[in-house]
Design a protein that fits this description.
The chain is of the alpha/beta class and about 300 residues long. About 50% of the residues lie in helices and about 15% in strands. The longest helix has about 35 residues. It comes from Mariniphaga sediminis.
Length: about 300
Amino acid sequence: MKPNRILSTLTLIFAFTLLVKAQYKSTHQNQTIENLTNNVTFGVIIGGNNPEIEFKEIKELGISHCQLNVAEYTPELAQRIHSSAKKYNIFPTTLICMGPGKYAWNFTEGPSTIGLIPREFRPERIKRLHEGIDFCKEAGIPAVHAHFGFIPENPEDTLYIEFVKIMKELGEYALHKGIDIYFETGQETPITLLRAITDIGTGNLYVNCDLANLVMYGKSNSLDGLKILQKYVREFHAKDGLYPTNPYELGKEVPIPEGEVNFPEIVRYLKKIHFKGTITIEYELAKKNYDYIIQTKNYLEELFMTQN
């Protein structure tokens, strides 16, 4: 064969090889994106008091899931949420249900004000949770979730025993309505939360794992906390923070990925255990920051594509 013909043949082979590689890369990337979409969805926290506007806004951001923090539980609003969710193809995953009364997010007043551990606020908050569960049923929201307080480490502590009894009653009420209850991580160590869920035992109790709260409350690093609670984790709050250095105040929240949450390791572990669920992007440093939400969503999606 003549040299110029050999050169032309080699050029064609090389070009064909590049084309095949490019097609493979494109196909593989599309399959990876499809697998991510099938297994992991991304959400945001919204008020939910104006679902027609709010659902439209997050739909335009390319977000399909959300958690709602509704002010008043009325049948009219439940119907509006249900209708708007159907119209915009939005999936509310949980209703954040807390209050009434004071919540102090620190280590001094927090134990006596947050959740159902403090006796002072229990009756009104139990009533609120019942109303929230009923609202979820009407609005088509599958779960209610809350900070339930600084659950005592000692299972023989009177406050722990009282809490388990209260949560059994709430869990059974929610179970009857077909609603799940999610514990938000933070005030308790992961093993204490695991023990409480086990002792309550109604079968509809799960975890909304706030990765930064584990750090900011100084209870665990995020990956170890996830490993302890993974059996019950249904949803995540994607948030970042620093460990506390002031014994009276929580650690500081910072933007992802500037804090102590090791998101590459978290994502690698989620892929290892074949996690299926929603990662809700939470950002408490500003009321509305859609640029941050999109930036963070892109960052997390990239991690899911690349971490093995």
